[in-house]
Design brief:
CATH class of the largest domain: Mainly Alpha
Number of strands: 6
Number of domains: 3
Distance between the termini: 10 Å
Largest sheet: 4 strands, mixed
Number of helices: 8
Order of helices and strands: EEEHEEHHEHHHHH
């Protein structure tokens, strides 16, 4: 199975016991190696290591941005008043007023600022770490599935370009005899224009040397062999991105050699078309894991 490194996934779950909703968002882009960048709330900082480890188990390459958000239920985020403490503070303030003359008035706001008067219902984050990691595993499964779908689309595109390469190779191979005949005619005409009585034997020798120089059969054979290797890698699946990238370099090398040996417009056009097809594949293969 071919996987793309470009994908997005989101998973959320409501934790009834803690009256809290957790949300993971994962974004993956192409990268030479695996780079995991978690963005976690302070309360979940201890999950940084486990998050990275889980990603390393599920993914091989790509730059992965991971974000976690949590939201407590509106009805559960409440503030309570410690009424016994407020009564004790009131009694203490009254006693202070009896001990000193003209005490400064104390407002209710000042009492509310005193430690312990207001109490907020807090989320038990320790109880959320397990569900959070389980939810991350689900998000990673979704990310891997998305990468697989994207990878299948990339593989299809590469297969189409490989078909195009074989078309160009076939056309060039079939045209070689005609190209050589045309070359022989042009060369003979040039020699006749220069020499009053051309030497047929010398002319044939020049043609043989020129034909050897423009012999591209080996390049065409290697292009076909590289196409077979690319298809084998796609069929095997797995982490083949680097291997495919190497094969693109080999294909490009043969296309360049074909262009350098070209002595006619047909071969030149075929070499140009080959390089276009190879570059289109190379750009997309950068996204394959």
């Amino acid at each position: 199975m071919i996987q793309s490194m470009t994908a997005f996934a989101r998973s959320d779950r409501h934790i009834d016991a803690q009256h809290t909703t957790l949300v993971w968002e994962l974004k993956s882009v192409n990268h030479r190696y695996l780079e995991v960048s978690p963005r976690l709330p302070d309360a979940f900082r201890e999950l940084d290591g486990p998050v990275r480890e889980l990603c390393r188990k599920r993914l091989n390459r790509g730059k992965i941005e991971i974000g976690l958000r949590y939201q407590a239920d509106a009805g559960e985020t409440s503030i309570s008043l410690d009424e016994p403490l407020v009564r004790q503070l009131g009694q203490a303030l009254h006693r202070v007023g009896e001990l000193i003359h003209h005490p400064a008035p104390v407002s209710p706001t000042e009492i509310l600022r005193m430690p312990g008067v207001l109490q907020m219902k807090e989320v038990d984050f320790n109880a959320l770490t397990g569900p959070a990691m389980a939810l991350l595993d689900e998000a990673l499964t979704s990310l891997v599935d998305t990468r697989a779908r994207e990878g299948a689309a990339l593989a299809k595109m590469v297969e189409e370009r490989l078909d195009g390469i074989l078309v160009q190779v076939g056309r060039t191979r079939n045209a070689l005899p005609l190209i050589l005949d045309g070359l022989r005619t042009r060369l003979k005409k040039r020699v006749e224009d220069v020499l009053a009585s051309p030497d047929p034997e010398r002319l044939e020798q020049e043609l043989v040397l020129l034909a050897q120089k423009m012999d591209v059969a080996e390049e065409l054979d290697r292009l076909e062999a590289h196409v077979t290797e690319v298809r084998r890698a796609l069929a095997e699946g797995g982490h083949v991105g680097r291997r495919l990238d190497f094969l693109m370099q080999e294909l490009n090398r043969e296309a360049n050699t074909l262009a350098s040996k070209s002595v006619d417009t047909e071969t030149t056009q075929a070499a140009v078309e080959l390089k276009v097809l190879i570059e289109q594949m190379r750009e997309q293969i950068q996204n394959i894991e």
